[in-house]
Amino acid sequence: MARPGRLLFAAAALLFALRCCFVPGPSAAPKAQSEFNPAVAASAALPALTMLAEDAEAKYGDQRKFAAVLVPLTTLVFPAVAMGMFVLYSFQDDAFWRVVPGTKRAQEMEDAWREHPLFANSQDPFDGLVNPDDYEKGLEEAWERAKPAGSTVTVKDKLQQLSKQNNPHWESWRKLSA
C-alpha cells in the first residue's frame, strides 16, 4: 500500500516546479531601463522607409526590350556555340579519354599512376594477399575436388588466362610484386 505522505510530497514538489514556469506579476517585474539605443531606432524606421521605394513592376515596353535580346540569345546563339564546341572537342584524338581505354591520354595517365609506388600493383589480382602461393595451392586443391571427370583445365593456366584478359601488363606487375 502506498503511504499518503509520499503522494502529498510529490504533489507539493510538482506545484513548486510549476511555479517556475510562469511569468512574474507586474509588481515583481524588473524596472525597464530608459537608455536610447540607435540600432533599435534604425530598425524601427526601416519599414517606414520602404514606403518611399517604387513598386517593382515591368512597365509597358520593357518586356519587348528583354525579349529582343534574350530570345535569340537563348535559342540561337548559346546552343550554336555549345554544339560547335562539342563537335570540335569530339573530333580530337583523345576527346573521351576517360571512357575510351586505348587513347593516348588514357595510356599516359595510367602510366603516370603506375609510376607511383602505392599504385604500381593496383591491377594485379593478387595485390593485397598475404601469401599468394598459399591462395593458389588452396584454389588448386578445391578445383581438384570439384572439377568434372576428364577435365584437363588447371588452375594456374586459367588464372594466367583471366589475368592477361583483364590486364595486358599482368606479367610485368607480377614480377614487380614478387
TrEMBL record:
Highest taxon above the source species: Eukaryota
Residues annotated as signal peptide: 1-28
GO biological-process terms attached to the record: photosynthesis
Disordered: annotated segments: 146-168
Gene source species: Symbiodinium pilosum (Dinoflagellate)
InterPro entries tied to this protein: PSI_PsaI
An annotated GO cellular component: photosystem I
Keywords: Membrane, Signal, Transmembrane, Transmembrane helix
Membrane-spanning parts: 66-91
UniProt-recorded name of the protein: Photosystem I reaction center subunit VIII
UniProt keyword annotation of Transmembrane present: yes
Pfam families membership: PSI_8 (PF00796)
Keyword Transit peptide carried by entry: no
